[in-house]
Amino acid sequence: MNRELEYMFVERARVWIPDAEEVWKSAELNKDYKNGDASLVLMLEDGTNIEHKLDPKTKNLPYLRNPDILVGENDLTALSYLHEPAVLHNLKVRFVDSKLIYTYCGIVLVAINPYETLPIYGTDIINAYSGQNMGDMDPHIFAVAEEAYKQMARDERNQSIIVSGESGAGKTVSAKYAMRYFATVSGSASEANVEQKVLASNPIMEAIGNAKTTRNDNSSRFGKYIEIGFDTRFRIIGANMRTYLLEKSRVVFQADEERNYHIFYQLCASSHLPEFKTLKLSSANDFLYTRQGRSPVIVGVDDTKELNATRNAFMLLGINESYQMGLFRVLAAILHLGNVEIKDRDSDSSVIAPNNRHLTAFCELVGVTYQDMTQWLCHRKLKTAAETYIKPLPRLQATNARDALSKHIYAKLFNWIVEHVNKALITNVKQHSFIGVLDIYGFETFEINSFEQFCINYANEKLQQQFNMHVFKLEQEEYMKEQIPWTLIDFYDNQPCINLIEAKMGILDLLDEECKMPKGSDDSWAQKLYNTHLKTCSLFEKPRMSNRAFIIQHFADKVEYQCDGFLEKNKDTVNEEQINVLKASKKFDLLVELFQDEHPATSPTGQVAGTGGRTRLSIKPDKSREKSSKEHKKTVGCQFRNSLQMLMETLNATTPHYVRCIKPNDFKLAFTFDPKRAVQQLRACGVLETIRISAAGFPSRWTYQEFFSRYRVLMKQKDVLPDKRLTCRNVLEKLVEDQDKYQFGKTKIFFRAGQVAYLEKLRADKLRAACIRIQKTIRCWLARKKYLRKRCAAITIQRFTRGYQARCLAKFMRRSQAATVIQKYQRMCVEKKRYRQKQAAALAMQTILRGYMARQKYQGLLRQHMAVIIQKRIRGWLARCWYKRCLESIVYLQCCIRRMRARRELKKLKIEARSVEHFKKLNKGMENKIMQLQRKVDEQSKEMRLTNERLNGLETSYSAESERMRGELSRLRGVEEDAKNKTIQVTSLLEELERLRKELSVTQKEKKTIEDWAHTYRNEMEKMVSELKEQNGSLKKDKDDLNRLIQEQSQQMTEKMARAIAEETQQLETDLNEERSRYQNLLTEHLRLEEKYDDLKEVALSSNVSKPGHRRTDSTHSSNESEYTYNSEYAELEEGSRAAEDVTRGIDTSLTLKLQKRLTELEQEKQSLRNELENKEDQFQRARARDDAEFKKARGAELEYESLKRQELESENKKLKHNLAEMRQSLLGNAATNSGAPGSPAYKVLLDQLNSSCEELDVRKEEVLILRSQLVSQKEAMHHKDEKETMTEPSVYVEDVSKLKDADEIKQAYVGLKDTNRSPRFMHKPLDVNDLLSRLRSAAPDFHKLNEDGELWLVNQGLKETIRLLEHQLQTQRRGHDNEVEALRGELQNVKEENNRQQQLLAQNLQLPPEARIEASLQHEITRLTNENLEFMAEDPTASREARVIILRRMVDLMEQLEKQDRTIRKLKKQLKVYSKRIGEMGAGQTEGQTSPGQMVDEPIHPVNIPRREKDFQGMLEYKKEDELKLVKNLILELKPRGVAVNLIPGLPAYILFMCLRHADYVNDDQKVRTLLTSTINSIKKILKKRGDDFETVSFWLSNTCRFLHCLKQYSGDEAFMKHNTSRQNEHCLSNFDLAEYRQVISDLAIQIYQQLIKCMENILHPMIVSGMLEHETIQGVSGVKPTGLRKRTSSIADEGTYTLDSILRQLSAFHSTMCQHGTDPELIKQVVKQQFYIIGAVTLNNLLLRKDMCSWSKGMQIRYNVSQLEEWLRDKGLMTCGAKETLEPLIQAAQLLQVKKKTDEDAEAICSMCQALTTAQIVKVLNLYTPVNEFEERVSVAFIRTIQTRLRDRCESPQLLMDTKMIYPVTFPFNPSCLALETIQIPSSLQLGFLTRV
């Protein structure tokens, strides 16, 4: 021991030391520990050095840390050092760093609440854990549930899952997920959907039993135990719920930041709904019972939606709307009752105000009177022996009584709901076993602890005792199983604490006794406790500062309880008169039902369990309960003790599984770990006790093989013996001296705590020493190699350097001599150039100066001459301007005077217009008044004349004087004007002189400026030229760049378009595959319902006796179902089917209706999906057609030459016709002269030209006909190559129509193609309204402007014109109609004649051979059409274009008719031969030629000619009607696939069935065809149902079904399927029936068989995949085995019977060879292989994502090697192109992710670009799970994982973690025609089909 301590406590060893903040802190030894040292020198993780003092008494050393490779283990018991800091650190690393919330601790699952929604509870996770061993997968609540489910099925023993923990730790969620797992995995035994009802009970119980607390937003305020019942097949049949200790006080009181039960807030949030108006609710803040916590809202929770979920759950459990509204009325009444205000009347009494709104609402809701409730809320009835008193209550007591009533009503409501939930979950099926899920409160301790906490902690004491006993029992069983010596392990027993609470004179006994006392109180009860237990029990204490409290030392901690309220809560009393008032309600039946006396519950160990609630937990029924008095009523404590005792009996009778929920922090922060809180809970929930019990024994356990593989490096070669047990024993004796540290069992080696760490250190030191030795050797080799390389390099460098220096010297000398010569000549050139430049500059300056002086002189003379000319012109212009102004002034004066005179004249005319006569005319009847006015006017006019005369005189005198003054003024103005003119003239002359001076100076300045500008301009021009040259160069460069850019952009656009087209095509294919997948999934569901229906029929048949009765067919079956089941008596025995149908009547009618309705819905959905599939296929085909059209367009270039030549010939033909017409006209024009007479020279010349033209025309005609026939044949060949079109489509002349450029041609061609019976030239265009309006407008005359009367006349004329135009149009239509009728009659006559000719021609052609017949008909039709073409062309060019289209159309129609006739002839010949043979057999002696008018050869055939009959065998098999059952039985039901596949041709049963079908079609027996197909389909289904697990059988019938489907297509007569047939095979086509619908039915059957094949293959492969791909070490020695805990993992060492990779490859080869032997289509084999590889990749990846022990570097190498082996298998089988390799891409990338570096940002970028097939969740999960196997590997840091998440944040992908292993790729069956001739098939005698006759 000392040696080991000295070896472990050395320098750099890591230990744990206590810490006040973090509980435990890690430190590292700075020096070795020596025995006897009093302290340790340590260094903390932050670099601080401390000295740790050891306890001088115990000398206990600090706890050692586990090796890094053990940190983060799935099972805490796998740790080498088992102690509190190791457990705490392991949980923290898993929770904070790896985001793993589940961890095993032996048999306990520790679950830490993440306070965040995690994607680890989906159906895919459930499927991944289903069927797995508990230790093989990562810890999960599903693993515990699976373990319980498996043990229930394996051990035939009931199970229990005990979920405990603090409030907010996640107990309810864990229990919910466990129940979801059972509901998903087991399913339901009936159609009642029991598993959905079990899950639906959760939202109901959460609504009425959960509330928000300070620690949890959804805290369960009651305990519940749910028993999920299973039948003998371990399917859910029902459930039962028991509840414990509902916290009723929460109804009337909530602490701060807490809420009442959720249901109250849900009702308040939904009060606006119409159905809740009668409840008179409002906001939760308006009610006392919901606003006390001041936190009515939970963040992220919508109470309205939660109420909808609750109501839906009620409906699913059978609680209808009326009951729901009744429940809501009770809840609303409780809220209103809480708002009833009670006031003081005096000190001893209270009163409620009249007409209280809330009390009125309460009374209305519960149906009681207002007076009664007012009376008994404020009063109480006291009974004595003689009298009864009514006592008023003070306000406080009345308020308490009101609250007690509210609590009592809610408790009754809670119990009623639990009771009805249990009724809904109970079924009539007998329960075989059950799994119980206990969701109960954990250990609680608060500042103030009352009666509720006392009961909760009491329950936890009982559960902890049971847990300790179970753990100890398991340890004892393990040691006894391995046969190793063991000593009794000491563990904490809490029986004394339980006795303190429940024993006689215990706390509960004293509490019940005090409750019975008349004046019992909390104080007196506390004194009794002190007197009884204070001195006798060490676990009971009294607080120092209180006499109303007590302390109990529980297993987890000391808890102080306050005695206040214990008695009241234990009594749970309520005013009896208030209850009677509620019972007397006559309007509310539900309320009366709540307060009915309940039946007592039975023991849970019996067959009937309680329905929940405290009042249902008595052990035995008490029949005298109604007669008992109140003092005999059971207290709450007594009831809880009894119910707890019943629970413990149930748990002891089951196998328990433990889930301990831990709350990581008190602030609900996601993935935040508080060590203090975690340690408290670990101590309280018993996890540390489990660790202590494990550590006291042998916690570390290894199998011999695992130990040998792990520690092989510690052994020497001589130590390795054949017997591995002996080898391990010898090695351990050498390595560990103390033999008490280990024990050898039968299959395992057991180690004490710390021994594995010691062995790991030895192993690590050995590996480190080996690594150092390897490094030393390699470094020496590398250094010597580097030295030799450097030495060789130095010698080489010296050699080359010296040579280089010599060459440089010689080169320098040569350059020096050359430089001297160059300098001489260069200086000479420079001086010569300088002299020439100076000379040229001097000459240039002289030339410029002389030229400048000459130009200046010339410019001066020129300016002087121009100035003279300007003066002359200006003076003349001024004179002309003065003349013009004078003339204009005169004209203006004349105009003014004339205007004045005209105005005077106008004024006079206006006065005359307003004369008296005018007014008389306008105002008749006013003559008298006018006469009076006229007299007045005359008088006034006289006065005016007098006045005017006087004024005129004065005016005359004044005018004379003004004229004189005006003349004087004008004279003075003239003088003044002359003076001004003289002054202005002098001033202007002076200004002109000054201006000329200024101009002179400006001219001189401008001269100088121009000279400067010329010099500057020259320089700028030179500079600009150079800049332009540069710009030109840059522009050229830009041009080149732009051209290159344009080319690149065009290339990019081309690539982009190509990518877009490819993406669109891929999207269409994806959509098509999705539709196919949906359709095929629907078929699977349909098949499942059919199987379930058949199972029900079989069960009913086996359980009931058949009764006589007539048979009938269910009318609700779908069309396909009726096809399947039509005349099924030939496939099944008649008696069995009749009995089954009779029994079917006895099945539950509702179940039958449900099945029928479901079948109808599935059929409708199937039809809609089929339509969608067809639409998608049409879209896909259209997309393909576009691509094919482009391809055809490219191929059409080959025919361009023939088309052009044909057009050229036609144009020449037109020219010749035109010349001929001109000649004829010239001949007609000269007919009167003699020159045109016959025999004249001109006539001969014209005749010769005409003959030559006709000959040339005939030649051209023949060429045109030949080219057209070639063109038609080539287009027909192209048309036959297209698989998507048939011969009935007019594709032959599509290209010719596309070449018609004229709109009329296109229109006429379209009309010709649309209507084959009418000629386009006779089509009459209807009159257009716009045309009529245009004619009306054009025919209207040009009228002048008219007045109003004239407008009416214009309208009249327009109507007349319209009438005339309409009459003319009517006459035109009549004439056109008559002409059209005549033309149609002529056309009809022509058609009749043509029909007669065609019939004659057909009769003639029928006598010719087929080849000659087609050629003759074609030649005849071409000749006829050519003649018509020539006639049309001569008559009308437009008609000739129409004729071309008609010719093409008729050619195609003719060819179609010929082929139809050929097919008809072939059918007639077949029938003729059959009839001839029958006649020959009957001895009629008739020949075939006498019965076949269309027979090719008329030679007679003898009736008895055996060789000829075999030669003419038509590939048909005849059977009798009564032999159909035998045929199906021998060929399908009793056929052994193995013998058929080996000895006979592939698909032989399919060929035989089709040949039988051909004969039924041949004889035109529709009943026989239908029954044969129906019997075949039903028989295949029957054999698959019987032997559906046999891969060989399923593969055999998949191959034959596909072959049968291909035969139906190949011989259907459709042109698309006949292209690859031989002529003989085409003769075997079906003639009478179109089986397209049955082809779809058989295709659906093939899909079902394919899915059955995949399921069968998956069932075989699934057990091999994980073992072969992950666990088995294909490369031995790469993977390391880490220590395992109590949950043993599957070993990676290949033992006998373990699956390996070779097993998978052998199985795949077996699958492939079987399908090949059965003749499966190669394309179908590729799809099967692709599905196989997808299953392998998906299952492997899913297990990798759920197994932390598999995520290591070495495991990544193993996976990549295994994948390479699978790829090699694909290459060997030639299946690399089937897409199977791509399905393994996620697994390959996951393996690469395990092996790449995971440190830097570059590594993160590489990972993001590499892992494209993995989702972000999968990548992060792998990185979190990555676990080093050796100490040399490093973990992935949290920062690196966050970097990955940041980089992958923008990915748009599914958040699903696991791959869907149930996904099946949609299957397609490409048409694969057979080259096998039906007439060559021989039927072996082994099939026992001798009753079939070859035809």
Number of strands: 26
Major β-sheet profile: 7 strands, mixed
Rounded average pLDDT: 78
| Count of alpha and pi helical runs | 56
Question: Beta fraction of the residues?
Answer: 5-15%
Q: Write down the Rg.
A: 57 Å
Structure description:
This protein is an alpha+beta fold. The protein has 56 helices and 26 strands. The strands form eight sheets. It has a seven-stranded mixed beta sheet, sandwiched between helices. A five-stranded antiparallel beta sheet has the order 4-3-2-1-5. Strand 3 and strand 4 form a beta hairpin. The protein is extended. The chain starts with a helix and ends with a strand. About 10% of the residues have low confidence.
What is the compact description of this entry?
By secondary structure, the protein is of the alpha+beta class.
Secondary structure elements and their pairing?
Layout: H1 2-8, E1 14-19, E2 23-29, E3 39-44, E4 49-53, E5 63-64, H2 84-97, E6 102-105, E7 108-112, H3 123-129, H4 141-155, E8 159-165, H5 171-186, H6 194-209, E9 210-211, E10 219-220, E11 223-230, E12 236-244, H7 262-269, H8 288-291, H9 303-316, H10 321-338, E13 342-344, E14 350-352, H11 357-366, H12 370-378, E15 379-383, E16 388-392, H13 395-425, E17 433-439, H14 451-482, H15 495-502, H16 507-516, H17 522-533, E18 540-541, E19 549-553, E20 558-562, H18 566-571, H19 576-583, H20 589-594, H21 636-652, E21 655-662, H22 675-685, H23 687-696, E22 700-703, H24 704-710, H25 724-735, E23 742-744, E24 748-751, H26 755-913, H27 916-922, H28 927-1103, H29 1119-1125, H30 1134-1144, H31 1149-1195, H32 1200-1229, H33 1241-1281, H34 1294-1298, H35 1303-1314, H36 1329-1339, H37 1348-1405, H38 1410-1435, H39 1437-1481, H40 1506-1511, E25 1517-1518, H41 1524-1533, H42 1537-1543, H43 1548-1562, H44 1566-1586, H45 1591-1610, H46 1615-1618, H47 1623-1627, H48 1636-1671, H49 1701-1717, H50 1722-1745, H51 1753-1773, H52 1780-1783, H53 1785-1795, H54 1801-1810, H55 1816-1825, ...
Parallel strand pairs: 7-21, 8-17, 8-21
Antiparallel strand pairs: 1-2, 1-5, 2-3, 3-4, 6-7, 9-10, 11-12, 11-17, 13-14, 15-16, 18-19, 19-20, 22-24, 23-24, 25-26
Helix pairs in contact: 4-5, 5-6, 6-9, 6-13, 7-9, 10-11, 10-13, 14-15, 14-21, 14-23, 16-17, 24-25, 28-30, 28-31, 28-48, 32-33, 35-39, 38-39, 41-44, 43-44, 43-45, 44-48, 45-48, 48-49, 48-50, 49-50, 50-53, 51-53, 54-56, 55-56
